[in-house]
Amino acid sequence: MKVGVNGRFYGAELSGVQRFARETAARLFSRVDDVVLFLPADVAPPEGLDERVRVVRGRLRGRVWEHVELPWRARAERCDVVLNLANVGPVFGGPHVVVIHDVLAVTNPEWFSRKFATWYRFVQARSARRAARVATVSDWARGELVRVFGLDPERVGIALQGIEPFDRPASAEAIRLARRRWALPDTYLLTVAGGDPRKNLRFLLEVLARWRGMRGVAPPLIVVGGERQAVHGSVSGRDAAAGGYGEAEIRAAGDVRFLGRVSDEDLRALYTAATVFCFPSLAEGFGRPPLEAMACGTPAVVAPYGPAREVVEGAALIVDLQPTRWVEAIERLIESPEERRALAEAGRRHALRFRWDATADAVLALCREVALGGRGEPPVVVPMPPDASALAVAARPEAADPDVVPLASVRVARRRLHGVLPGPGFRRARSAHDSAAVPEPAAGEHEALEEE
Question: Quick one: 413 and 332 in the same domain?
Fold first, then answer.
């Protein structure tokens, strides 16, 4: 099996989607004997790339490369499948496997800049519908893909996310340095929010304001994460006119500190030293930050967003978005070391079950199914290992059609799977809707935020 990987994500700023792509790709490269990494002209290959990986640099950049040159390059390399790990893929060529974390830019465009939401509404639907298989990160996200884009549920597989490099607490020395660097108090709350409105930082500020009104003083809040104007534009979380928060809300909440973007090492220290991790998000495709905090030994309080129960139920507190209920839940954890310790231990055991190895196995299973032209049973959810030492292995059945000979008849299998192979230059009839003018987003808008 020859797998092509769309490596455009290597040129993007690290966020949740990019971490998924990088961690998964790194493990795929060691699992596939024949793999080609396709890169735009302005993106360099990652450091330490497996020497077995063939790198093909393009002449074009950005979206033009992705939608025009990449399909041509993949066909010239005779790839059996092209893997797209960062929310969208080319609308030509193939066969493609596309990983889509969520469809929030389509269902909730108010959280994104108009240009970004318009582009995603255009390209994400076409990527999903043209893909031979689609992977997503939770059963809830799978349901949304089926509902919003009308996909056949049998074409959508699930690849749960991993938590590395946040799979262990920070050292005592790292915590000491973090406390000194940011003058951290002994007790503080932590959240990952930045400028994403759906992270719902305004609600957390309301919780602290209510806490001060009830108790006179509230614990300090540390906020990690930077704004991404290319994705969210004027609907930044700090834009009060767009439902965000302003200086008045910050003052009412008391001691609130914004640290911006921090390194992985610093974030691990902040996770480990925090008393409680708070995540009042309105919507997530998966929701990785609570798992990261839990793996570092810190209990988490989260909102009941779509996949919350699927991902953290029984290992974190899931509390409705009512300020008084959040005050009571967090206060109880702060004042009861035994309850906090018990929840932290349960959370760490649970979080350590999520590994990028299992993610890579699930994605590779879909690629293998497409490459072999399999039309057997639908993709399955990769079972979670019973403990941190076990690895979930995704087993895929062989092609059900006895006429399909693995690898030797890939082109014939593609005709059965897609109807017809793409013609020279990937020309196809275009509808008037396809030809509609769609604004091209600026550089850096490629991947929607999925800070999990």
Answer: no
Distance in angstroms (rounded) separating the CA atoms of residues 181 and 122:
45
d(CA 185, CA 260): 18
- Residue 112: left if φ>0, alpha if ψ -120 to 50, beta else—which one? beta
Shared-domain flag, residues 89 and 136: yes
- What's the rounded Cα separation, in Å, for the pair 261 and 193? 10
Residues 310, 384 contacting (CB under 8 angstroms): no
Choose the final residue of a domain: 291, 326, 351: 351
CATH number, domain containing residue 179: 3.40.50.2000
CA distances from 30 to 145, 186, 388 (A): 30, 43, 21
- C-alpha to C-alpha distance for 149 and 125, rounded to whole angstroms: 6
- Do 44 and 142 share a domain, yes or no? yes
pLDDT in tens, 367-410: 999 988 743 333 333 334 333 333 232 223 233 332 222 332 33
Asked if the model's pLDDT at residue 96 lies above 50, the reply is yes
Q: Dump strand ranges (E) for 200-344.
A: 221-224, 256-260, 276-279, 300-302, 317-318
- 211 part of a folded domain: yes
Task: Give the model's pLDDT for residue 243.
Answer: 56
Question: Would residue 437 count as lying in a domain?
Answer: no
- 32-82 residue pLDDT tens: 989 999 999 999 999 989 888 999 999 999 889 999 999 999 999 999 999
CB 73 within 8 A of CB 58: yes
Question: Residues 129, 148: one domain?
Answer: yes
User: Does one domain contain both 36 and 49?
Assistant: yes
CA atoms 329, 331, 336, 337: torsion sign: positive
**201 assigned to some structural domain:** yes
Q: Do residues 337 and 374 share a domain? A: no
Q: What is the pTM of this model?
A: 0.80
| Alpha-helix residue ranges (DSSP H) falling in 216-254 | 229-232, 247-253
Indicate if 326 and 378 belong to the same structural domain: no
Domain stops at, among 299, 334, 351: 351
Distance of CA 438 to the CA centre of its chain: 25
CB 69 within 8 A of CB 101: no
Judge whether 198 and 244 are in contact, CB under 8 Å.
no
Check: CB of residue 317 under 8 Å from CB of residue 302: yes
